[in-house]
Amino acid sequence: MRQQHITRGLTLLSLAALLAACGVPAPAPKGNASTKHSSAPHTRVPKKAKKSKGATHVSSSRTRGHVRPAMRTISLATLPQVSAVTPFNPHMMAYHEISTFINEMGYHWVTPVPGVAYMTNQHNQITGVEAIFPQNLGDFSWYDPPTPPTILNASLATYSEHLYFVPPTSITTTMSSALPTDLLSWSAFVGANPRLHAYVREARPFRGYTVYAPPNGPGLKVLVNPSSGVVSGFMVSEPASWGWHRVYLGRPGHPFPSKIWGHAYYSVFMLEPPMASTASGGPVS
């Protein structure tokens, strides 16, 4: 049976945040914003990135008189390389690997907070994303199908949600690097992840992106480019009571209003250059 719930390493990393929600202080993350990724080849940004086929140029922007290098879109027809999406995700250096290769998933990469985890294959390509949610909020149809929740200390437990970019059965240690993905349209992505049939389109966009989200309860939100239709990113919220971390949007002490949590911090993982600054503006809800 496919291992649908999070690996032991990921649950241990999330335990600090869950304990914080119960009033137990969570230890401060080790290192700082300059901490390097534990496996440099996965996240090293090339000095001069190769131009992807069909790539388009995004205009440069100026910050305090300095020209910031322009970002280029990448082809999502095949699985994206970690190094290719690193420029779109300023928090990538906070990720580190916590699992061996799991068939139908890959290697798991996480931050010190639950946030959005991602999975990779032996080619350093991203095969999917994952998030975990406290069991006491309920079990929902878009969560991974029926496996017991991951049990933590003090009877705390979490459910998980995996979203795959290719059919899970194709994620093996011998998989090709040229497999076509299901990222090129929302309908194709739902076809590969049928539990998303329950999702609804939110009335408000997020920084220009169309947002598909659970009708109620927590879950991974999916950001879709309204022009190309490509699945462009993912977003998840966590209660502000868990504390702030540099992987979140916004500033410490300034959470966003949330229908689920009251106030929350948000973590975003992008597969394309963001349409708007990831340091300004608020999430959908």
Helix content: 10-25%
Spatial strand sequence of the major β-sheet: 3-4-5-6-8-7
Shape: globular
Please give the largest β-sheet: 6 strands, antiparallel
Unreliable spans are 1-69
In DSSP terms (H or I, runs of 4 or more residues), the helix count works out at 4
Structural category: alpha+beta
Q: How many distinct domains?
A: 1
Q: Give me the strand/helix succession.
A: HHEEHEEEEEEHEEEEEE
The tally of strands reads 14
Percent strand equals: 15-25%
Mean pLDDT: 75
Distance between the termini: 36 Å
Estimated radius of gyration: 18 Å
How would you portray this structure in words?
This protein is of the alpha+beta class. It has one domain. Helix content is 10%, strand content 23%. The longest helix has 14 residues, at 8-21. The chain starts with 7 loop residues before the first helix and ends in a 15-residue tail after the last strand. Residues 1-69 have low confidence and may be disordered.
Features:
285 residues; 4 helices; 14 strands; 10% helix; disordered N terminus
Briefly summarize what is shown:
With 285 residues, the protein is an alpha+beta fold. Helix content is 10%, strand content 23%. The chain has one domain.
Blueprint (SSEs and pairs):
Elements: H1 8-21, H2 40-43, E1 61-63, E2 66-68, H3 82-85, E3 96-97, E4 107-110, E5 117-120, E6 126-134, E7 150-151, E8 157-164, H4 186-192, E9 200-201, E10 210-213, E11 221-224, E12 231-239, E13 256-258, E14 262-270
Antiparallel strand pairs: 1-2, 3-4, 4-5, 5-6, 6-8, 7-8, 9-10, 10-11, 11-12, 12-14, 13-14
